[in-house]
Amino acid sequence: MAERAQRDEDRTRGTLRFVLGDQLNRRISSLVDLDPEHDVVLLVEVRDEATYVRHHKQKIAFLFAAMRHFAAELREEGATVVYVRLTDPGNTGSFTGELERALASHPVERVVVTEPGEWRVWEMMQDWRESLSVPIEIRTDNRFLCPREDFARWAEGRHHLRMETFYRGMRRRTGLLMENGEPIGGRWNFDAENRKRLPKAHRVPDRIGFQPDAVTRETIALVEAEFPDHFGDTAAFSWPVTRGDALAALKHFIDECLPTFGDYQDAMKGGEPFLYHALLSPALNAGLLTAEEVCQAAERAFQDGAVPLHCAEGFIRQILGWREYVRGLYWARMPEYRDTNALTAERPLPWFYWSGETQLNCIRQVVDQTRSHAYAHHIQRLMVTGNFALIAGLTPAEVEEWYLIVFADAYEWVELPNVHGMVLWADGGVMGSKPYAASGAYIDRMSDYCGDCAYDVRKKLGPGACPFNYLYWNFLIENEERLADNPRMTMPYRTLAGMDEARRRQIRDEATRFLGTLSAKPDDHQSSQTAKPR
Ligand code: FAD
Ligand code: DLZ
Ligand code: SF4
Fold it and tell me: What is the domain extent for residue 156?
């Protein structure tokens, strides 16, 4: 009894360290000064987080498995961990409820957290300053290379926030791929060398997969039981769920894929969802890996002569450039950022984004692989499902919700700028200098999808013509007032100006007819919000 009283008294001097499900890193700021003697680490599985959008089943199973493994590793280290499972009796279902419950049973001096990835949770944390019985310290998220405040300073006063300028600053700041203050190889960017189409007989390497262990099998079963109507299958689950597995995935990528990554970065191939891509984003975004160590691993491989410069640079740019940039932009511009709709796009999301049931082969391929793997690579997200959403004028909020649901790596800080800014140009050019609109010719050039399609990519109009072709021109016509003055749109608008009135009318008619066939519902009484997306 006396021993227990003493222990409780010690705890009153301790700290409760609340680690969110995407902060699973032993060096995260909330854990750097962990005192296993006195502190309590809290991790909670809560229904609110699994359902604020109806995440892909694999994303929930992945995160719960990673959280359980992380908790076990902390316990092995001697830390006191309070781990709340989804179905534990008394689970209130929310971050706030579980934090209050933990404080009621573990008297501590203060709470320490790391700033969250999403605005929604940031707002919750501001309320905790007022509502909790003890003080709370919210620390910088040290998994990123550019703190939010530094990005905000860089962004201040700029209307256009161009990634390339930011990226050069980050190369200088970190010294990655730099020599005597200059970029190695004399150039900052080797993008032009990263646009090859995959040759027909080309064999891509087999990928390392991580068979679900007992912990993951349990979380998969939990998700199937608790969230049966969420989008996605779990049969092909093979994500790394521990730090050890994530490091093995990184090594596999650097050894087997990075030497060719740059060449085929933009390529797409039917039945080959992964090609040379890293498949590291779920692990990175959940904290199992850090941006710094991943970039350093790529730089080391270049310095060892195992990886050509354009591949190492192409990969490092994605993480040091794009990833840090979208995160900075999100925090610099939220919450107003999500509310803009610069192209006044208002068409509901077609049901085929959930079902994959469409004759557009490119979309079918991407939706089907996304259902199986909770993954599509960048160009599939940007130039297939994204490009369609842009040129068909789909409502930003619905498209954004879809992207936040269907990928294992999706969190609003990274999803929103990519979808709202890069894909839909709904921010009116804050992020990208022009919309990435493209006709079927782009998809045909970078993939083999068109060969197996019911539509003819070479046909611009008339029966059997590829809808991407007339939707593209229809998009330019509809947005002529907004976009024709954009210097980067001069070429397409010059071509449009050369079209006679009859052809413009035909484009408008065929686009209107096609768009009229799109249904937002599987039948008359289900919507994408309430239906069972499978
Ligand atoms: P690789 O192609 O091998 O790239 C390596 C790494 O670079 C990725 O793991 C990722 O961390 C980073 N990266 C590359 N491009 C971007 C980018 N544009 N923004 C941020 N990081 C980038 N990424 C997410 O992590 N979560 C999302 O929710 C997400 N939504 C996206 C939505 C759209 C419309 C688009 C166009 C892109 C989105 N991305 C998102 C970025 C990118 O598509 C994924 O990071 C990438 O496909 C993940 O697969 P990979 O690890 O195989 O990446
Ligand atoms: C995405 C997610 C899910 C599905 N479930 C949980 C959870 O049960 N517990 C938790 O701590 N985190 C979860 N997450 C991740 C959070 O949504 C994420 O931490 C916030 O969105 C802030 O980025
Ligand atoms: Fe997609 Fe058009 Fe090619 Fe079919 S023909 S796969 S719809 S781009």
Answer: 148-212+238-333
